[in-house]
Amino acid sequence: MAPDANKKNKALLHVGAFLDTTVIYETNQVKNAAGLQENDCNDTSGCVTEEEPSLECVLQPRLLTDFSYVENPVRCSLRCQGTTKHLACNGKSAVFLQDSLATSSSSSSSNDEFAILPQADGSVLLRNTKTQQYLCSSTKGSVYASETGCDGMEQWIMTTNNDTSKERSYAVLSSLVSQRVLTCSGNTIHAALPEDINICNPKRRQTISWSLEFTSGELCFMSLPLMNKQVRCNLIGELSLSTNFQGWEAWRFSETWQHDNVRISPWAHSELFLASNEDGVVSCCTKEESAIQGSSTIWNVQKAPNGLYGVVIKAVVPTSSTSTATTGSRVLRYDCHQQCFCTIPDTALLLDESCVWDLESLHRQTYYLVTADNARRLEGAKRGITTRGYPGRLITEEWKIEPVPGSPKGIVRLYSNARQQYLVSDQDGEVSLRPHSEPSERDGSDHWVMEEREDGIVVRAYQTKRVLVAPDKGPVSTVEPGTIVHGNTRWRLEPKTPRQVSKEKLQGVGGAVAVGIIGTVATPLLIGAIGIGSIGVAGQVAIGSIRAVEALNTVTQVTLSSSQLMIGDSSSTFLSSADSTSRLVGSAGNDGGKNKTRPFCSWRSW
To answer: How far is 88 from 94, CA to CA, in rounded Å?
Structure first.
């Protein structure tokens, strides 16, 4: 057995002595389906290998249109069990505990927020999102932060207990190199040898147990179909309904350790969470305010019962008679008469359309089709189908991906939001736009297939098999496969999203004025440059950087989500050495994952 494998197996055995645990990061080394190149560093170079931070676009294979919008990598803060303090870095080498500062905002990092970066050998890196330093442990037990993180000192094995009888779960972190366990003693952080820890002492056991509080999640619009409006949280945290699909209407669904429950926070605010108390009062407040008010920021999302079409969002509210939260004790509702949000008891007789919600991904299935070299974007201009390379994004460059009803999976139409027509191609290679009601509906010329390649995706006309090409000069056309062309036949998909605007960005603007400028915040956010772009086909199912929890035996990917951390199989405490690099514990690779309610925008396929 290789030395590295010995180190890893020893670490697993040592950590297994502390908790009924499951290794939650065990992956194959596979190619990045999002189009990112593999790091050239090898195991002996001591270099850090990681995936670039980005927002990943994930497709739930069971329903073609449900591309979810999930922040990647997973971000969280680490709280030592038994305390209210979190692990933090100061920008130098010190690692210490402090009161929580981490927020749910991707635009304002704090020094106690870490990105979890899974590695191909089953370990993870923990990188501070503010200082960009890695959490490291020396062979002598010192814990420090480093920007370079070499010689494997920055690699950790993360395990979690999966005792569903407990209200919360905790993780244990052990160094892959030194086999020492991350420990907190007062405000001091160090890595202790397993034999030096008395796990029979509950207080001592707490010093090695860490709670992961996630600050990233799935981004959705939360709509009320009854009113055909979206839930909005304005500049000062007030809730209302809106007809817009912009930054103020976007919400983040972040996983918690309370078994399938989530926190729901407005995307434009870093410190606010949707909350409800046992009297049914719903508001947006901080965690501290919710504790004072007796409110809960924990929610559970389920498919609506009794033939209702949508989801119900249930508040996990502790009652005065017990200290334990009861899942789904109250259901989120919009009172049309009082024009306010509330929660009502979870009684089937009371549920109606005012309790049913639709969750739609942040980009609303709209993309910019960008050439693989990032030079130009497909445009449905008045003069015809062409490409545009100037800065900025225009509505003429927006394309909505729609499935073709009754056709094989993976066949889509490309709908121009600006022209309200579909992209079509004839047998001679001419590409144009036609309304859906014209003959293109019958001849299949508006049917397209997207095929994954290492250097991008190929957009192919389904009927003629011709490939969409962006020539160096002239209009866009399709060519026969294998044709030598002066242009680009590889593309990326760049999701169209509203711009995130936080209260801090607008604090210099008067409240009424700031709320009034909401119409200006929906300019597209450029994320294509950081590797989000590609979408491909595996087994005739369109995919895009699929998370293992959604893969359903389609593809394995070294891209994990916070929802995966909640679905470990407690029956398999650790993998044997033969399996230690061959499967991902907690994935739904064989459709056996416990969590069937992810992603949220795919609720139709639950």
So the answer is: 8
